[in-house]
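Weekly puzzle thread! Below is a chain. First person to post its structure in token form gets bragging rights.
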Amino acid sequence: MSLFVQKYGGTSVGSIERIEAVADKVATFRAQGHEMVVVLSAMSGETNRLIDLAYQIQEKPDPRELDVLVSTGEQVTIALLTMALKKRGYDACSYTGGQVKILTDNAHTKARIQRIDVERMRRDLDLGKVVVVAGFQGVDEEGNITTLGRGGSDTTGVALAAALDATECQIYTDVDGVYTTDPRVVDSARRLNRITFEEMLEMASLGSKVLQIRAVEFAGKYKVPLRVLSTFEEGGGTLISLDEEDNEMEQPVVSGIAFNRDEAKLTIRGVPDNPGVACRILAPVGAENIEVDVIVQNISAVDGTTDFTFTVHRNDLGKARDVLERVAAELGAKEVVADDKIAKVSIVGVGMRSHANVASRMFSALGEDNINIQMITTSEIKISVIIDERYLELAVRALHSEFELSEPREAREKL
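Winning reply:
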């Protein structure tokens, strides 16, 4: 008998019919003798509806009260699923995040989990009950309701699986796994049977929307086997696990291609090329809580100045440009140039550690399609490039073809 933690997203519980279907799926696992903990999101669209109500009352909703409001969405789904399970003859009990003591810090709307009291859940599981828990929420030390931010139900599921030492955490959603890239861009994109935590973390951070980044971090830290499956189709999904647990002889060179359209680029030209200038540029940007991604500083010109370029999320461009204009005036720089028509494309794979010429293959494939590379950043298992946004889909298709990602792994190993 195994202990499974299953998380179902908003589309999976978006109607009474879908909640009934989830109950059937959970009942099947319970009938096989497995212990079951189920984590639910609110019905699709419900959280947005509640947030909209808050903004109709306050221009800037009070964070504590906003958490109280939006946490109610999950209470609806956990109660309905529990009723559906009871109707099928299975004993079940629903709990909010506070009732199972998911303790968080007090950062309302973006709280982080600190610890979980599993005693109540263990007692129910020992009695043969299905435990149904509201995702996305917890309580702080003062008993205030907190929420974990967008996608927080994934993190709830992984955290409960870690605390309960579950056999596996299963994330049920509207896709049937992790793909080599977005199938809407590349028709021949292939579902991966297995991927490492490192690769999934890179893909999530680089634009893949399958899993919340924090959930992947949590799973990797506590070594929780994580599987992404479809609520609506049968199949094995994609298992995300530790690299050393992979029993295959070698990893493929590239496992997937991620991309992000929400990028913008800022360049401050003609700044003095002196020690500490990078800090003088970026510290004010960071003080405004603006995250900086790719950074490039040119070599010094003959006049002792340099150009400094970095990327930010497109939503932060206006604020970042205002900050940079002030910095430019202080430093005596020539000008600030902004570009919101860029995109980031990345190749990801743990096999890159042991294969040479990966970068040259990537750059060659882009060059053959006359796609100019504006910026480059790398890590052990990823290479990211900044390009003109209009060439994004062309670049993804070119790289998918270059690294033969449409072919099953077995076929690629024979090449």
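Puzzle host: Confirmed. Bonus trivia for everyone else. Residues 253 and 355 are 7 Å apart (CA to CA).
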